[in-house]
Amino acid sequence: MAEEKGTLARVFTDWQVIVVLALVIFSVLSIYVLPPAFNKGAEGNLQLGLDLEGGSWIQLSFQSEVVSFDSDMSSEEFAVKLSGKIDAEVVPVSDNVVEIRKYYEKSELEEIFGELGVKLVTYEQGISKDTADNVKDILEDKINSLGTRDARINTLTGLNDVTKYIRVELAGTDINTAQDIVSSQGKFEIRIITTGNESEHVLFGDAVTSVDNPSQNNDYWGVGFTLSPEGATALRDACIKYGAVNNPEAHYLVMLLDGVEVYSAPLSPDLAAKITKGPVNDLKASTGYGQEGYEEAEVLEIHLRAGALPVDVEIAGSGSVPAVLGDYFKMVCIIAGIIALIAVAAAVYYRYREPSIVVPMILINLSEIVILLGIARYIQQLDLASIAGLIAVLGTGIDQLVVITDEVLHDGRVPSPNLYLKRFKRALGIITVAASTTIFAMLPLALMDLSTLKGFALITILGVLIGVLITRPAYGKIIMAILSKKPSK
């Protein structure tokens, strides 16, 4: 009994074992206690992906193209001339390469380029990498404003740095809500009625500096927002120029979102009087009453707050995973994990027939999975590919523990601390080489944005690093304490 207590004392006072225990405790707290709390079920705060939570995915294509040209003009000079010719925004990308932020067929551009004395060399529908990063940031802002968690936005960029598609996955979100938020450009514009049904442009959404939450006034929902000094001046000049301050009933102020009217009304007498005296930067767009008015106000707020996408987008593909199917996948993953654990335990016991070796192996392996889940809770969704990575880590982890055990085992006991450490270092060397190979093999998958195996690769890499740096050294100390007390055979 005293010998058993001494063994436990040596194990639980070793700093490497203490690190493992501390990380396990932290991981459990992260999953079930520490904020922000996402779920309150068995999965705790783990971020479940589309496969397990249910939700929607949308793949967007861009109404834009990246072209290269042959000319003596620089990209900047050509962008200015082409923009005036086609009435679209043209952005220089690099030498002799520009991005046209409006869709044109190749034949149309060849004709227009010919008129400018320029030869069209290459034509690729899509956007440049910098624009793709901007689109991704704006979509992330919009999705965060919606309050949707577990969103994943990936871009598909070719070797020529042209991004053709962007894929958005929203766990726990229905397809209609997802489409409302991410499948439109979100271009906000204020126009003023001049004569009859004719109108003139006043300002775009980039003049909006701050946005209020949707609010209700006399049963009507609306969104208040603030204009920049330049925007307020442009609004005042237009209202005075077209007579909206003197005859507001004939010169409505119209607000559009992606070309669709969301507000149209004359200036109130109070606002007209204020504009006469000076620029006014506080406005409000009413969207209607009831639930429909609130939903429209919510969408308008999101687009105003995040800003418009630099290019128009179209839905290239979409789909959804029902929540019921997600629950089924969860159950299948749990069963697969349990079966894998039982199979591993049975295989290890069959090899060693010694509970004092098998139990520490299984416990270390489980602690590795718990630590991995605790870290993944902050950085990675758990989808089916990620769960496969967890099961792979479970199997490869046992393989490495077997390597350590076989390397240090000598007639059922450790003959001396020096010999043990020598063999243990040799085993760690073997494991480190194998781990490095695994990491390098997984890196391409981890770096591919649209790869469905990205989660598998990230979880596998994390598991390998946790094992080599944390749990394997701790296991070495545990098995040394256990084997050193065994009698010689």
Topology of this protein?
Layout: H1 2-12, H2 15-32, H3 50-53, E1 55-62, E2 65-70, H4 75-86, E3 90-94, E4 97-100, H5 106-115, E5 119-125, E6 127-128, H6 129-146, E7 151-157, E8 162-171, H7 175-182, E9 188-193, E10 199-204, E11 208-211, E12 215-217, E13 220-227, H8 229-241, E14 253-257, E15 260-265, H9 269-277, E16 282-289, H10 290-306, E17 313-321, H11 323-352, H12 355-379, H13 384-408, H14 417-447, H15 454-483
Antiparallel strand pairs: 1-8, 1-17, 2-4, 2-5, 3-4, 6-8, 7-8, 9-10, 9-14, 11-13, 12-13, 13-16, 14-15
Helix pairs in contact: 1-15, 2-12, 2-15, 6-10, 11-12, 11-13, 12-13, 12-15, 13-14, 13-15, 14-15
Characterization of the model:
It contains 15 helices and 17 strands. It is of the alpha+beta class. It has three domains: 2-53 and 322-483, Up-down Bundle (Multidrug efflux transporter AcrB transmembrane fold); 60-130, Pseudouridine synthase, CATH 3.30.2350.10; 188-308, Gyrase A, domain 2 (2-Layer Sandwich), CATH 3.30.1360.200. The strands form four sheets. Strands 1, 6, 7, 8 and 17 form a five-stranded antiparallel β-sheet that branches. A four-stranded antiparallel β-sheet has the order 3-4-2-5, covered by helices on one side. The protein has a four-stranded antiparallel β-sheet with strand order 10-9-14-15, covered by helices on one side. Strand 12 (215-217) and strand 13 form a beta hairpin. The longest helix has 31 residues, at 417-447. The radius of gyration is 31 Å and the shape is elongated. The model has no long low-confidence stretch (mean pLDDT 82).
